[in-house]
Amino acid sequence: MPHLDLDQLTKTYDGNLAVDRLCLPVEKGECIALLGPSGCGKTTTLRMVAGFITPDSGHIRLDGRAIERDPPHKRKIGMVFQAYALFPHLSAAGNVAFGLEMQGVTRAERDRRVADALAMVGLAGMAERYPAQLSGGQQQRVALARALVIEPDLLLLDEPLSNLDATLRGEMRAEIARLRARIPITTLFVTHDQGEAMALADRIAVLDRGKLIECADPRSLSEQPTRLFTAQFLGERSVLPGRLENGFFDAGHGIRLAPGPGAPERPSHLVLRAARLGLAPAGSTPATPFAAAGTIAEAAWLGDSISYEVSVGGLLLRVIRPTTEPAFVPGQPVMVTGGPEALSWLDDFAAV
Fold this sequence. Notes:
Blueprint: E1 4-13, E2 16-26, E3 31-35, H1 42-50, E4 57-62, E5 65-66, E6 77-80, H2 92-102, H3 107-120, H4 136-149, E7 154-158, H5 166-182, E8 187-191, H6 194-200, E9 203-208, E10 211-216, H7 218-223, H8 228-233, E11 237-241, E12 243-245, E13 248-252, E14 255-257, E15 269-273, E16 278-281, E17 290-301, E18 305-312, E19 315-322, E20 333-338, E21 343-346
Parallel strand pairs: 3-8, 3-9, 6-7, 7-8
Antiparallel strand pairs: 1-2, 1-4, 4-5, 9-10, 11-15, 12-13, 13-14, 15-21, 16-20, 17-18, 17-20, 18-19
Helix pairs in contact: 2-3, 2-4, 3-4
């Protein structure tokens, strides 16, 4: 039995399906990221689990018990909101203690647990500071401590790092990962940041228009997605439709190659991962499964890497290479190369 089980969960607004018969089992201690474009239903799903929205149909089971009709305070769920939702008139300790007060925990026990929670998130010396006296990252830590101090059965995170700058996002992402290693609590979190999902989640549930498209561990989704939407949505890659003819996959634009080991019997698309493709001078004869002559259309410096757009027979392919390699310039003819690690295949004809 899964620790959390979303069973045929459905929610409609004004005749439009926000969440469409979502089924998602979550094992105890597992961290699941809900990932997808805006309006895909991920936040609605999280709020139904939290108890802020009532589903039209379906069930939310926690340890086998249906909770979809329980009020939020009866669910023993900790939640960290996107905007933190701290009480401005309460100190950090007061904010963390609030849920314990609602539970009727004694003063002595409350003080002990609040001190432990603040220490756990690295705020032991800031208990008496108010939210306005704390940085964004510190406010996020207070919100996390408040969610964990009640010792919840389930932790919900709603875009937990979206209000932080890039440096703080990296620090808080590492902090959450360390906390989850110490406290393996079942976690469901919403994010629009693919890197965040890849770094924190045991599995990623990809949603689109209220439907669960695919759910798998980060590496499987990145290396071998099984659905066209996932391949197009995740990461930097080119997804080329084509058809199999006489044992070769023909994607047009002069791109024709034999499907490699592990390819489906009738592939519908070739997926080229930008960071795994290579570039070689024009006229090279690389011994790689994928090789196509093209011309550099654009080159953008990204700090430690260069992102290229390469025109191959009028088709633009994305290639990302480290700055330690010799750079190519727009207008320069090149060969785009790709070993087996750069290629994957789909047979998602339903989406064609």
